[in-house]
Amino acid sequence: MLDWNWYFSALSQSAAAIVGIVGAFIITKILNNQTQYAQKMNRAREIIADCNRVVDSANDLAIEWYVERRIAEEVESLEALLEDDDSHEPAVYYDKLDFPDLVDRQTVLGLISDQIDARRDRLSREREARRRESSQRPLLASSLTEQHFRDMVYNPPVYPQPPNYALESQMMREREAIDVVVRDARHQIRTVNGYIDSIRGNPESSPQITWALFLVTILFFAGVIYPLSFMPFSPGGSFNISFMAFFELLQTLKGFLLLVVSFVFTSILVLFFRLNIYLRYPKALLQSFERFSRISTYSKHFEIMDRNQRAGAASHNNQ
Question: How far apart (Å, rounded) are the C-alpha atoms in residues 276 and 28?
Answer without folding.
Answer: 12
